[in-house]
Amino acid sequence: MRGRAIPLVLTPPKGRGKPPRHLADLSLAERAAAAAELGLPGFRAKQLSVHYFERLVHDPAQMTDLPAAQRAELVAGFLPELLTPVRTQTADRGTTVKTLWKLFDGALVESVLMRYTDRATICISSQAGCGMACPFCATGQGGLQRNMSTAEIVHQVVVAARAMATGEVAGGPGRLSNVVFMGMGEPLHAYAATLGAVRRLTDPAPDGLGLSARHVTVSTVGLVPRMRQLADEGIPVTLALSLHAPDDELRNEIVPINTRFSVAETVDAAYYYFERTGRRVSIEYAMMRGINDQDHRAELLADVLSADGRGTGWTHVNLIPLNPTPGSKWTASDPADEREFVRRLESRGISTTVRDTRGREIDGACGQLAAAES
């Protein structure tokens, strides 16, 4: 394989402006203090919080319990426009909705809302671009522009929750139930904003959106210190480790952060997360034809996950049929090889599923819409 075309970036670029302060950036107490700064009673901030997080409203005209004379000032001070839709595409008979958003500084990010029979999941971005430089990933090939703010992350979810509640998604009105940090960016590289967003999503309304932490999944390519830090936060979200290879030689090539933290160190950190939270860790594994889908790698993956007496009950392997980007040499595995990979893992006692891939006809891989627009 060729060497990677772009470098690993572990420090976000400096010099970019910050997005405007938003209600979702602040705790309920901080919102009251911010209202006082504006010369307004603190309870107004709570009223706004009810509108935003409970009623999923941010149109001032619908906030009739706020004084008309203060309404515009309150909304301008607490609910500035953070994301502007650039393009929306639908697939799967309208149950998959992919949106390309423009941030205040022109940066582009994506989110994907997927409605299933038993749940509705929003896949959200945490960075504009990504610095992890994985060569098979459209976002990784675009480099890193900046971390998103807590509110920019949260607002993707609130918009999706509103779309579900108002029946904008095929299937009629419903409830958003799941959030996955698997869009553009490495969530643990934007640790402060990601953690703030997780708290906002799981705090009871009107502090936050009131989602179950068990229905929030945070993915990572393996920033080991941050994985351990997240384990100690006491928030039982699901951790998804994007492993993609069971050996250092291959993983160094396709997941460059592995040159800093080995497979063994990364899996140890994932197991630490399980020990601290009791939450089973999802091992994400994108199946790439002739790259990482061989029989011996299935066996090696089973060895790595069950090493050091860990057993197999602490983890679940989620195989992902690669959604290739145009012109890429990286392609999805042959279905027969995929089935054999599953068989070998299951024969070793490892719970394994193949992800239901959505949105292939709408450039489903994260980063493709943004790359086409920029």
Describe the structure.
There is one protein chain. With 374 residues, the chain is of the alpha/beta class. Helices cover 34% and strands 17% of the residues. It has helices at residues 28-37, 43-54, 68-78, 138-141, 150-165, 191-202, 224-231, 248-254, 263-277, 295-306, 335-347, 368-373, and strands spanning 84-91, 96-102, 108-115, 120-123, 127-129, 144-147, 178-181, 216-220, 238-242, 281-287, 315-321, 352-354. The strands form 2 sheets. A 10-stranded mixed beta sheet has the order 1-2-3-4-7-8-9-10-11-12. A two-stranded antiparallel sheet has the order 5-6. The protein is elongated. The model has no long low-confidence stretch (mean pLDDT 92).
Question: How do you describe this structure in short?
Answer:
It is built from 12 helices and 12 strands. It has 374 residues and is α/β, with parallel strands linked by helices. A 10-stranded mixed beta sheet has the order 1-2-3-4-7-8-9-10-11-12. Strands 5-6 form a two-stranded antiparallel ribbon.
Strand order of the largest sheet: 1-2-3-4-7-8-9-10-11-12
Q: Main sheet, how many strands, which sense, barrel?
A: 10 strands, mixed
Radius of gyration: 21 Å
Which strand-content bin applies to the residues?
Answer: 15-25%
- The count of helical stretches stands at 12
Q: Based on DSSP secondary structure assignment, what is the total number of beta strands?
A: 12
Report low-confidence residues grouped into runs of 5 or more: none
User: In percent, how helical is the residue content?
Assistant: 25-40%
Structural class, by secondary structure, is: alpha/beta
Rounded average pLDDT: 92
Termini distance?
A: 28 Å
Order of helices and strands: HHHEEEEEHEHEHEHEHHEHEHEH
What overall form do the CA principal axes indicate?
Answer: elongated
